[in-house]
């Protein structure tokens, strides 16, 4: 692993995970039941896996690839957005399910906290048949979105990808993705599924849920007895780096004025992996992750800002056509 004395690996980062359309509604104060609540609404490309890939590219990783699954309704739009972000995407177009959609309700108060309404659509239909060992050609690191574990086909894909990566000596990281879905999956099933993962990147809530411990540091330490390196993201409290049952570093957050916390954890993960692949130690990579997370919360949506002053692609029209990209 880069950052552990072996030197920086030369090769690409491959992310396997979800690609979805985010509908971000920013409102102030509580929602008014039974009537209107004023909001600023934008349609943006998103998905935890895709966001991580885009932030890794934005943070300087020169070769970032993504495997995801979308519907024909928005495939072209998503492929263009990923390309513009510097990501080489292999998007499988699902013949039956539409592209996943997430409605992000963001309270524009001081914390800019968000609530997700999720229709996973095609994103959780990634399956072993979508995998090819050739996807690892030239790859130095594989990152899996935890959302893969929340569907039967995704759970079947994870061990296939892990086995392929292990056969080639490619280290694997995973972000648990959702405390809510983890409750449904169950802790034991999750821990069994991540056996062989080198780096785990949970949020504070996910780490506590996975261990049953109320303190994030204790939780990160305990998880690092199952996974060699645990980097627990704590939002405004920074991050914890744990190995071999011990918290080795507490990384402070970078001050920020939040507008929308959507994708902040994805930004952390993308920048962390970019730094790790560039040869940084995990503690230094976590510093980069905190910097990216701070930048992410100061803008709307889960992706990094468009490069060179550009704008993201316009939202797809209904019936947006099928992409020949699978």
From TrEMBL:
Among its keywords, does the record have DNA-binding?
A: no
Q: What is this protein called?
A: Sugar kinase
Which parts of the sequence are annotated with region: Disordered? 297-326
This protein's superkingdom? Bacteria
List compositional bias (Low complexity) regions by residue number.
297-312
Organism of origin is: Streptomyces chromofuscus
- GO molecular function terms here? kinase activity
- What positions belong to coiled-coil segments? none
Matching entries from InterPro entries are given as:
Carboh/pur_kinase_PfkB_CS, PfkB_dom, Ribokinase-like
Q: Which UniProt keywords apply?
A: Kinase, Transferase
Q: Where is the Carbohydrate kinase PfkB domain?
A: 13-305
Supply the PROSITE patterns for this chain: PFKB_KINASES_2
Q: Does the keyword Transferase apply?
A: yes
């Amino acid at each position: 692993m880069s950052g552990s004395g072996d030197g920086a690996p030369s090769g690409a980062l491959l992310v396997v995970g979800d690609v979805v359309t985010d509908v971000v509604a920013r409102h102030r104060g509580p929602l008014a039941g039974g009537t209107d609540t004023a909001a600023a609404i934008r349609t943006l490309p998103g998905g935890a896996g895709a966001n991580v890939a885009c932030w890794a590219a934005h943070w300087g990783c020169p070769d970032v690839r993504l495997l995801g699954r979308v519907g024909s309704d928005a495939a072209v739009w998503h492929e263009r957005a990923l390309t513009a972000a510097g990501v080489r995407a292999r998007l499988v177009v699902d013949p039956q399910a539409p592209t996943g959609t997430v409605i992000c309700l963001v309270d524009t108060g001081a914390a800019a906290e968000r609530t997700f309404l999720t229709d996973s659509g095609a994103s959780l239909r990634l399956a072993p048949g979508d995998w090819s060992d050739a996807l690892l050609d030239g790859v130095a690191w594989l990152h899996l979105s935890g959302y893969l574990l929340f569907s039967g086909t995704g759970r079947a894909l994870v061990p296939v990808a892990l086995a392929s990566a292990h056969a080639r000596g490619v280290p694997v990281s995973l972000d648990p993705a959702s405390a809510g879905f983890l409750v449904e999956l169950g802790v034991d099933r999750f821990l069994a599924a991540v056996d062989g993962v080198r780096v785990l990147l949970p949020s504070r809530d996910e780490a506590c849920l996975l261990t049953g411990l109320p303190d994030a540091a204790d939780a990160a330490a305990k998880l690092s007895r199952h996974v060699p390196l645990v980097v627990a993201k704590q939002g405004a409290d920074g991050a914890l780096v744990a190995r071999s049952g011990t918290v080795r570093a507490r990384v402070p957050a970078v001050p920020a004025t939040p507008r929308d916390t959507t994708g902040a954890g994805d930004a952390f993960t993308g920048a962390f992996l970019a730094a790790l692949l560039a040869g940084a130690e995990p503690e230094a990579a976590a510093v980069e992750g905190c910097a990216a997370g701070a930048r992410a919360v100061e803008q709307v949506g889960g992706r990094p800002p468009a490069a060179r002053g550009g704008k993201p692609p316009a939202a797809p029209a209904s019936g947006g056509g099928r992409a020949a990209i699978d």
